[in-house]
Amino acid sequence: MGYIAPEMLSRNIRNVSYKSDVFSYGMLLLEMVSQDEELHNQIDEEGDTQIVKKLTIVGLWCIQWFPTDRPSMKLVVQMLEGEHNLPTPPNPFTCSGLTQTNASPPKRYLQQELAVVSDIE
Fold first, then answer.
1. Which residue would you say has higher pLDDT here, 49 or 59?
2. Which residues have C-beta within 8 Å of that of residue 31, sequence separation ≥ 6?
3. pTM over 0.85
4. d(CA 100, CA 19)
């Protein structure tokens, strides 16, 4: 069945959007990092550590409690492909009342264009 975003369980179902898929993708990233024992046994090189860190940070951005705090899938792809250090997201489960956080994913990725990948090469 997959991972269900918090808004899917609320009574206000009309607010479900593509951000529910972003939540599910973030949970998948975090599960991949936490469950892969071979990955943990082979993390010796600096590059491997950076990949795990990037997957974790992007996963945490994706599972923010409020859908508006989650990045778009385009931004998720740009963060995963980018070489820049990603800012640490806020704790996704810290709720101070029922208001949304003011945190937002890094804006510098919004200006990048995605490269076109051709299936025929």
1. 59
2. none
3. no
4. 15
